[in-house]
Write a structure and sequence with these properties.
Elements: H1 3-12, E1 16-19, H2 28-34, E2 38-41, E3 51-53, H3 59-66, H4 73-82, E4 88-89, E5 98-101, E6 123-133, E7 137-149, E8 152-155, H5 162-173, E9 177-183, H6 187-194, H7 204-211, E10 216-219, E11 226-228, E12 233-239, E13 246-248, E14 262-264, E15 266-274, E16 280-282, H8 287-307, E17 312-317, E18 326-331, H9 337-346, E19 353-358, H10 366-376, H11 379-382, E20 383-390, E21 408-416
Helix pairs in contact: 4-7, 4-8, 6-7, 6-8
Length: about 450
């Protein structure tokens, strides 16, 4: 599966519009923000490469790409994590139809948009990275890249990650980190590499697990790394051992706030390879980032509760919580498991709020979740606060932390399950007599 297959699926589902008139690249972000569908910009003024944006801006569109109901995507990712299929290196792929090296390497060939009004510059936001470490092997992820000059980029290594670990190891040894940056990939691959796997785990195997077959890779031409064979564009790069010295930002983050100007490493582009008729993909901030995070963190929650021996029936990582901070789980509760589930979920680094309810609650209905909190919670008994936990640096409510220290924050959990001591009669819900015997439409003209 590749980006083009996803575009076909979106068009069949009525979730993609095409703009055939020439568009200024500075206007891509504004036009995408106004669209209720994914956008295919066929002509970009000054470039011979079309642009697609907003393709996974809603859970409905992600569901089209993942070929699964939106409420089931996280469970599917969790299953792929448990049954990974390693990638396979092939001799050639369309991502290397055109190979540009040496003086031909020029990032201004790409229609890089200015996404946010006060961003520090044009950004590559759909950069799927595949990096190498001598000890830990291959790591894949998703990072942003700010244009610096025709052969250099800044990379957003703001939080703890395997790639940041790779870079810190390389910096100590004064060597670069070889890294391929793939632009224009299928959403299943994006979701797979966003999963927070342990160091040494190849996230590309999750992509194989999602589709039941290996993801095909090709070897890069100028660096010791691999890239998805069906990607639209690949940048063959090295993260230089110059330290956190380059201005990077500001940038509109997945939190829906604009991040600060920070100091980041410098990335040198050694080669640009692409399909003959390549399509440039933009992840439109913040919603596409949020939507791609949701199934990843739902999968993490499924795996956490399974490991804790708790039977979950549904999990919802909310878009209101930016796809990372707020999780609601429904469980088949046994004695004491409401609080066990809360504590287990709060152990995940990103979850700031966790709510656990009984299986009779529809966790995708905010009214039902709120009803469960009202009717099943006593604050002094069922609200858990965990101080001094590791937090996401992009949480604007945190007190400042001086780099390289990572910030600490508080977490909150709510056990909104029916109390063990409760009289079951008090939780008898309203039902209507003869509800299954009569139908309203039979009485309408």
């Amino acid at each position: 599966m590749d980006l083009r297959a996803f575009l076909t699926d979106l068009e069949k589902a009525g979730e993609l519009i095409r703009i055939r008139r020439p568009v200024d690249p500075r206007h891509i972000s504004a036009l995408t923000a106004q669209s209720k569908k994914g956008v295919y910009f066929e002509k970009i003024r000054g470039y011979d490469m079309p642009v697609v944006a907003g393709l996974v801006g809603t859970m409905d569109r992600l569901a089209v790409g993942m070929h699964a109901p939106k409420g089931a995507i996280g469970r599917r990712v969790s299953e792929a994590v448990q049954k990974p299929i390693p990638p396979e290196v092939v001799k050639e792929g369309p991502c290397q139809d055109v190979v540009l090296t040496g003086t031909e390497v020029d990032l201004t060939r790409l229609p890089l948009p200015l996404q946010g009004e006060i961003d520090g510059g044009p950004y590559i936001s759909a950069g799927m990275t595949i990096a190498k470490d001598p000890e830990y092997g291959r790591n894949a992820g998703f990072y942003r890249f700010m244009y610096n000059d025709p052969t250099h980029l800044g990379i957003g290594l703001t939080g703890p990650s395997d790639l940041r670990l790779f870079y810190q190891r390389a910096l100590s040894a004064k060597r670069p980190v070889p890294m391929a940056v793939a632009i224009g990939t299928h959403p299943s691959d994006m979701v797979a590499v966003t999963y927070k796997a342990p160091v040494g785990y190849d996230e590309l195997a999750i992509a194989g697990g999602l589709w039941g077959e290996p993801l095909e890779l090709v070897r890069c031409k100028t660096i010791d790394a691999e890239a998805p064979a069906n990607a639209e564009i690949v940048l063959e790069c090295e993260i230089l051992p110059t330290g956190f010295t380059v201005d990077e930002g500001r940038f509109g983050e997945f939190t829906r706030f604009v991040g600060e100007l920070v100091q980041m490493p410098l990335v040198e582009v050694k080669a640009i390879t692409h399909r003959r008729d390549a399509i440039f993909q933009v992840i439109h901030m913040p919603w596409e980032n949020i939507v791609l995070d949701v199934p990843v963190y739902e999968a993490i929650a499924w795996n956490i509760l399974t490991t804790a021996g708790i039977e979950a029936t549904a999990i919802n990582v909310t878009t209101g919580g930016c796809g990372q901070f707020h999780v609601v789980a429904a469980i088949k509760k046994r004695g004491g498991e409401g609080k066990n589930a809360v504590l287990a979920l709060l152990s995940a680094a990103s979850f700031k709020y966790a709510v656990v309810v009984d299986e009779d609650i529809d966790i995708f209905d905010p009214d039902q979740v709120e009803w469960a909190i009202f009717s099943r919670v006593q604050a002094d008994r069922d609200v858990i606060i965990v101080p001094g936990a590791r937090a996401k640096p992009l949480d604007p409510s945190l007190p400042p932390a001086k780099p390289p220290a990572l910030p600490l924050g508080a977490k909150l959990g709510i056990d909104a399950t029916i109390p063990e001591y409760a009289y079951k009669e008090r939780y008898t819900t309203i039902t209507y007599p003869f509800i299954n015997d009569v139908k309203l439409e039979d009485y309408l003209d």
